[in-house]
Write a structure and sequence with these properties.
Structural class: alpha/beta
Number of strands: 19
Number of helices: 11
Order of helices and strands: EEEEHEEEEHEEEHHEHEHEHEHEHEHEHE
CATH architecture of the largest domain: Alpha-Beta Complex
Largest sheet: 8 strands, mixed
CATH topology of the largest domain: Quinone Oxidoreductase, Chain A, domain 1
Number of domains: 2
Radius of gyration: 21 Å
Distance between the termini: 29 Å
CATH class of the largest domain: Alpha Beta
Helix content: 25-40%
Strand content: 25-35%
């Protein structure tokens, strides 16, 4: 079934059906170009993009360090927008004109992992903006299965941040955090602050955030978290913040070798450490303390469909506040400035590109 655009929602095509897009051509080579608009196929929709966030993985691609991203490629996997065309019968709950956020993952659908409910760790999984064209463009083609309709109370800006929020939600779900437990979050970047918020919403009695950058520490404090500088942090200093209650869960959202060792020192015996960050290299780990303390180290990889849906629910019900994390907004014409803002550390958290 083909569903086209109602009056007022037509795709704004340029001559020859071209659109503006941010295209990766190789290491430190991003270009704003005119490219052909995507064509809708069965089981897919065309989304007119409103906002797309710059993620750490986008920076990795820009630096030429991502093993899967191959040029030419339109980057961007944290995006929201409006359905302008769709083909297929499998999503009768959606229609042209709906405001949506996009779950950007796709998988083979046939392996044991996919069939057992874990397509997010399928060996053949892919991601829009990494393995297929993504959201730094006026239009993007996405699978109908990846569309989540935005509640009227959720803005397009918030919709573009549901994806990183789902990453945080997955980490907290993996941790099995119980009401009244204490948590430490290592790293105060977007994922760290989102993880801290989700842990608090899940009922943590105290969430202590540890971060070396003053700008990020100040933001975390303004959001109501107990915050410590990385330098000189000790188990004793952390316990002062929890009233002496030991740390049940440590969330590693830093992805640094020092964090790998620090988390082991802070968590209680029989506690849990969840690796939310994406480590790029092998790092030293204190296996002696892990063994003697029967400490569990748990991996967390992106999110499931349920995690993504719950992330939208948290935003809709105002259990988390995404707006303080949005520090910069740039139009697509200035997207490169957004990348530079993050790479040069200009007191930035989440940078959104308005398409």
């Amino acid at each position: 079934m083909v569903r086209g655009c109602p009056p007022g929602m037509e795709r704004q095509k340029g001559e020859g059906g071209v659109m503006k897009a941010l295209v990766y051509h190789g290491k430190r080579d991003l270009r704003l170009e005119e490219v052909g608009e995507p064509q809708c196929e069965e089981g897919h929709a065309i989304v007119r993009v409103s906002f797309c966030g710059i993620c750490g993985s986008d920076l990795t691609i820009y630096e030429g360090k991502h093993v899967r991203a191959k040029p030419p490629l339109i980057l961007g996997h944290e995006f929201s927008g409006t359905i302008v065309e769709m083909r297929g019968k499998e999503r009768p709950d959606l229609k042209v004109g709906d405001r949506v956020t996009v779950e950007p993952t796709f998988s083979c659908g046939t392996c044991d992992l996919c069939r057992s409910g874990s397509p997010h760790i399928c060996l053949k999984k892919g991601l829009y903006g990494v393995d297929a064209h993504g959201g730094f463009a006026q239009f993007v083609k996405v699978s109908l299965r990846g569309l989540h309709r935005l509640d009227d109370a959720v803005s397009f800006e918030e919709g573009a941040m549901v994806e990183p929020l789902a990453v945080a939600l997955r980490g907290v779900a993996i941790s099995r955090l119980s009401v009244g437990e204490t948590a430490v979050v290592l790293g105060g970047g977007p994922i760290g602050l989102l993880t801290a918020q989700v842990a608090r919403a899940a009922g943590a009695a105290e969430v202590v955030l540890i971060e070396p950058i003053p700008f990020r520490r100040k933001m975390a404090e303004e959001m109501g978290f107990s915050v410590l500088d990385t330098e000189g942090v000790t188990r004793e200093r952390v316990l002062e913040r929890t009233g002496g209650k030991e740390i049940d869960v440590v969330f590693d959202a830093a992805g640094a070798p020092s964090a790998a060792l620090l988390g082991t020192n802070l968590v209680r015996r029989t506690g849990r450490i969840v690796i939310v960050a994406v480590y790029k290299d092998l790092v030293p780990y204190d296996l002696i303390t892990l063994g003697y303390g029967e400490i569990q180290v748990l991996g967390s990889c992106i999110y499931t469909f349920k995690d993504f849906a719950k992330a939208h629910f948290l935003v809709e019900k105002r259990r988390v506040d995404l707006h303080p994390l949005i520090t910069h907004r740039f139009p697509l014409s200035q997207a490169l400035e957004g990348f530079k803002t993050l790479l040069e550390g200009r007191n930035a958290q989440k940078v959104l590109i308005q398409i």
